[in-house]
Amino acid sequence: DTAVSQTPKYLVTQMGNDKSIKCEQNLGHDTMYWYKQDSKKFLKIMFSYNNKELIINETVPNRFSPKSPDKAHLNLHINSLELGDSAVYFCASSQFSIKGGYGNTEAFFGQGTRLTVV
Amino acid sequence: AQSVTQLDSQVPVFEEAPVELRCNYSSSVSVYLFWYVQYPNQGLQLLLKYLSGSTLVKGINGFEAEFNKSQTSFHLRKPSVHISDTAEYFCAVSRDDMRFGAGTRLTVKP
């Protein structure tokens, strides 16, 4: 069974469209994340949720809205897609909340969603 | 806040040669350190982690890293690389959140 799974793996869409990426983890972890990896492989944290509560919200356009229906799922919805949104988006999870000093746990990553905006 | 600097963006080496990928971190408090590997078109996989204790950490695939507090470094080493080690390697630091370095592209040539 895949520990952290995200769908779709590839997403090609036109500018201005709205799209969603789904993520599920079956590890029983409390914390889930979204990272964006640009064409130069730079990984930037976007959001972090702990038990469905938003704990990290980096400087991300408000066109990006995460939603966590339960602690095993963290979806990413993107409105009005722009060319610059093209990237690989990774979902990840970890056992404890990294906020508050529980920073000693590794993050498990999904396989990524390659988003291409044309 | 903590940050990570990977000193080399690309490291080409020949097969069976030793390799060192360098990582320096910056933090005003104690942190936890990780190395991840990303093979082409795949997600990130944990190689090893330093939480506390022995400063020499052994990971998967023959990799090891040494935590040096005085130099704020966490360099990754392997004594003899294989073609299959060609990948992107990321150093990460974790305290309040997990931050990644810019990555080092390791290319192993025959």
Key terms for this structure?
heterodimer; A: about 120 residues; mainly beta; Immunoglobulin-like; seven-stranded mixed β-sheet; four-stranded antiparallel β-sheet; 11 strands; about 0% helix; globular; B: about 110 residues; six-stranded mixed β-sheet; 12 strands
| Major β-sheet annotation of chain A | 7 strands, mixed
- What is the ordering of alpha helices and beta strands of chain A? EEEEEEEEEEE
Profile the largest sheet of chain B. Answer: 6 strands, mixed
CATH arch. level architecture of chain B: Sandwich
Instruction: Bin the strand percentage of chain A.
Output: over 45%
Radius of gyration of chain B: 13 Å
The average pLDDT score of chain B comes to 92
- Counting DSSP H or I runs of 4 or more residues, the number of helices of chain A is 0
The run of helices and strands of chain B is EEEEEEEEEEEE
Q: Work out the helix count of chain B.
A: 0
Q: Could you estimate the helical fraction of the residues of chain A in percent?
A: under 10%
Number of strands of chain B: 12
CATH architecture of chain A: Sandwich
Question: What is the fourth-level CATH superfamily of chain A?
Answer: Immunoglobulins
Describe this structure as you would to a colleague:
- The complex is a heterodimer of chains A (118) and B (110).
- Chain A is built from no helices and 11 strands.
- Chain A has 118 residues and is mainly β.
- In chain A, 0% of the residues lie in helices and 53% in strands.
- Chain A has a single domain, classed as Sandwich (Immunoglobulin-like).
- In chain A, a hairpin with a 2-residue loop joins strand 7 (64-70) and strand 8 (73-78).
- Chain B is globular, with a radius of gyration of 13 Å.
- Helices cover 0% and strands 55% of the residues of chain B.
- With 110 residues, chain B is mainly β.
- Chain B has a single domain, classed as Sandwich (Immunoglobulin-like).
